[in-house]
């Protein structure tokens, strides 16, 4: 079975999708399949299909084209104006072969942007959209993920995520975004991406075929007062240090194993991706355990990893490694006790710069203070083991979920390409529903043993009453369409 792409690049699904279930794929095959997908969408793939291969005349002097290196300063200033200063700095970075932090994004540079220019106004940029290709993993809880089999427990899918949607005030209301979207969706097809996700304004993206689907950004949070008990009883055996490139393998494996155990869907990052992310604007720390027993080794043992969001300083990844020297409680307590210090030493300066008007990118400086109303969030989704590992009074703030909007260009094509079965797993620590995909015909999967649901016959009713959590997953894959 193949995914036929628009410019005749055939992506053979059997080459790219990890199989699971009765015919277990050896790890090396799963790894090879995944590597192949990462390489295909990588900027380093010289035969990666081009976004908007040729300029498109939109009439009235307007031309839609792919961004060019010479657009850097104007497009960065445009995005700083339309979105926010950090949007401008982010745009600027994508135009540099290696940005101001020395990072190189694995899949995105200026060629991922489209712009509309007005030829009557000296080719002024009046509208822009860009897209990030990623690999999203759909998890399978049937196997308890371990370091050696984590990649066999799900199916990787190429996902294209449009971002940075904006039009100059004077040019709005003329359907320019539709023109961009058509081109970005065409590119998604060329990359073999059956799903597109966008995070943004409710109501707007449905006009381009997007429907509200997976949750994002939900979380819990705290204040200095709520964290005080954890700071006071901080255990000196758990130390938080900045991550280095030597930690890449540890971080990649820890994230993969935990994500496959817990999440229905996650974004997979390979070694090159992590190396790039670690050099970029996010802030990465590793928590280590150093024994205080005279008989034990004083060699630090890495127990987990934390990623703070670049501009807010909220925590967006928090993962405990498989270790017998620390529990979720030890790990989360150590991280939470560190958060105010991190905000003082790093984020206070970052936030100052974010609020400043956009000029040109420069290194962020410190101011070493926290405002009286300081608060922070663990943006780890609606459910996460960390939330239950400290007293609820430490994390009294709640952030409601927001949503990804999902576009499935052809549900029929998706169903013919993958088989879906939905499972509620004992291994799912967060209690979230998990989904399993296999290359096969829709509706043909029957698993032996365990709880399972397929979409055959009258199973919609069964899902609703027998497996209510699965309804969430159905919403992800088969969101309500505009004409439902
Ligand atoms: C939203 C935006 C990109 C639309 O650009 P545009 O070139 O005017 O896009 P289109 O012409 O395709 O769409 C305009 C339509 O979207 C509607 N629209 C604009 N903002 C909207 C919103 N927040 N929610 C729902 N609809 C919205 C307009 O009312 C108009 O409707 P109409 O076609 O029925 O008259 C533009 O208003 C903009 O740049 N806004 C600021 C940046 C922003 O918010 N970007 C999106 C971040 S998720």
Automatic annotation (TrEMBL):
The lineage of its organism: Eukaryota, Fungi, Fungi incertae sedis, Chytridiomycota, Chytridiomycota incertae sedis. This is Uncharacterized protein. InterPro entries: Acyl_CoA_acyltransferase.
């Amino acid at each position: 079975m193949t995914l036929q792409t628009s410019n005749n690049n055939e992506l053979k699904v059997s080459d790219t999708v990890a199989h699971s279930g009765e015919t277990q794929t050896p790890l090396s095959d799963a790894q090879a399949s995944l590597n192949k997908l990462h390489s295909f969408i990588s900027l380093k793939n010289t035969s990666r299909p081009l976004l908007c291969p040729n300029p498109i005349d939109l009439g009235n002097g307007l031309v839609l084209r792919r961004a060019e290196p010479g657009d850097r300063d104007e497009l960065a200033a445009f995005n700083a104006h339309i979105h926010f200063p950090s949007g401008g700095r982010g745009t600027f970075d994508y135009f540099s072969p290696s940005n101001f932090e020395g990072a190189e994004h694995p899949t995105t540079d200026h060629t991922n942007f489209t712009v509309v220019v007005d030829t009557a106004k000296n080719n002024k940029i009046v509208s822009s959209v860009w897209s990030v290709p990623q690999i999203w993993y759909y998890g399978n809880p049937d196997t308890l993920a371990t370091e050696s089999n984590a990649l066999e427990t799900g199916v990787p899918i190429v996902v294209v995520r449009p971002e940075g949607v904006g039009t100059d005030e004077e040019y709005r209301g003329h359907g320019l975004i539709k023109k961009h979207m058509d081109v970005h969706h065409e590119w998604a097809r060329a990359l073999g991406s059956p799903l597109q996700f966008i995070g943004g304004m409710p109501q707007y993206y449905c006009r381009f075929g997007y429907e509200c689907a997976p949750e994002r950004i939900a979380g819990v949070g705290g204040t200095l007062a709520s964290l005080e008990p954890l700071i006071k009883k901080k255990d000196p055996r758990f130390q938080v240090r900045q991550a280095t490139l030597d930690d890449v393998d540890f971080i990649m494996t820890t994230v993969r194993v935990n994500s496959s155990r817990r999440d229905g869907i996650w974004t997979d990052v390979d070694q090159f991706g992590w190396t790039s992310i670690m050099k970029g604007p996010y802030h990465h720390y590793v928590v280590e355990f150093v024994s205080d027993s005279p008989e034990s080794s004083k060699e630090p043992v890495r127990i987990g990893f934390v990623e703070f969001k670049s501009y807010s300083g909220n925590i967006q990844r928090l993962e405990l490694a498989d270790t017998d020297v620390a529990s979720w409680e030890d790990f989360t307590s150590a991280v939470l006790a560190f958060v105010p210090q991190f905000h003082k030493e790093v984020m206070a300066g970052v936030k100052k710069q974010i609020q400043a008007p956009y000029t040109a990118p420069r290194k962020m400086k410190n101011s070493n203070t926290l405002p009286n109303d300081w608060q922070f969030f663990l943006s780890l989704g609606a459910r996460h083991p960390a939330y239950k590992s400290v007293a609820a009074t430490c994390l009294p703030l709640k952030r409601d979920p927001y949503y990804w909007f999902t576009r499935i260009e052809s549900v029929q094509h998706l169903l013919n390409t993958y088989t879906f079965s939905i499972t509620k797993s004992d291994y799912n620590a967060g209690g979230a529903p998990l989904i399993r995909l296999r290359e096969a015909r829709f509706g043909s999967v029957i698993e032996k043993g365990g709880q399972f649901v397929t979409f055959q016959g009258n199973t919609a009713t069964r899902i609703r009453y027998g497996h209510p959590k699965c309804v969430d997953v159905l919403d992800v894959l088969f969101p309500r369409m505009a004409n439902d």
